[in-house]
Amino acid sequence: MSETQTIEHDAKARIAAAADLAALEALRVEFLGKQGSVSALMKTLGKMSPEERQTKGPEIQALRQAVTDALAARKDVLEAEALEAKLAAETLDLTLPAPAATRGSVHPVSQVMDELAEIFADLGFAVATGPEIEDDWYNFTALNMPESHPARAMHDTFYFPDTAPKGGKMLLRTHTSPVQIRTMLAEGAPLRIIAPGRVYRSDSDATHTPMFHQIEGLVIDKGIHLGHLKWTLETFLKAFFENEDIVIRLRPSYFPFTEPSVEADVGFELVDGKRVLGGSGDAPGHGWMELLGSGMVNRRVIEMGGLDPDEWQGFAFGIGVDRLAMLKYGMDDLRAFFDGDARWLQHYGFSALAQPTLSAGVGERA
Ligand code: PHE
User: Are residues 123 and 266 in the same domain?
Assistant: First the structure.
């Protein structure tokens, strides 16, 4: 056996016997490292005569290649064995329950707005929207409240310094009623819309926050009268409170944009000091609770909406959404609605996965 054959034989045996990757690496250094035995043989080539190099050169090259190949082959085997051992040692118990995913919840205001949109959709109402930063003209003037109209003082308005395109100052809308004007101007008649959204007034206590939510309703058509308004309010309130015993009372009121104007009260019964909706408020132990403002759309508002009031009539109503949520789901402090306290939301919020439907009422609580 030549010297190179001896080295190759010995190297292959030891490589095949290497127990792990660390041992294999030690062998690589021993043979092919800078001070390695095969590397040392390579260095002898330089000192050889050309004839000797002709025969020895290929032999030494072949040795180096054989050792390199043997190392690589053994490395593949050891790596595969290491993976097998790891897979055998690690067990995955697929029967363990997965950790609970944290789930957000739907805010009661969003939930109630969805419920309202659904109820009114069944009555043929579409959803309309308008800007929260509003022009004085849409918020007041076109709703029959010209500048210096005393009713403007009823709204504690947040004004911007900017002059509005249609005169006056820009402002944060104080109610959703400007959407009445915008929709009439944009779509004409007939109309059946609700307009839910944020409104702003400079006011703050347990039942008032500077930002709150309203939903506006507007119907414009031919031959519309107060009976249509009363039926719509009754139907919607029974569906919303999921209570057929709801009784409403229309009480004369005043809004510049409706004529006549009526406030709708809902009858309740005092049970253990708590108000339970249902029944006439005139019965013994009962009372009336003010719920919303409404009326027949003022002729001047129909004109401001670009329509002929001799041809088109309508009714409108506006309700506080937050108040509806408090009444239906039994919360008592309006300010908690907007504190952003995650614990409150977990308690009062709704599951995002349950679908509210009119027929099924609200979905499962979160
Ligand atoms: N916009 C009135 C308010 O905010 C409510 C209302 C709307 C009254 C529509 C009548 C008709 O108080």
Answer: yes
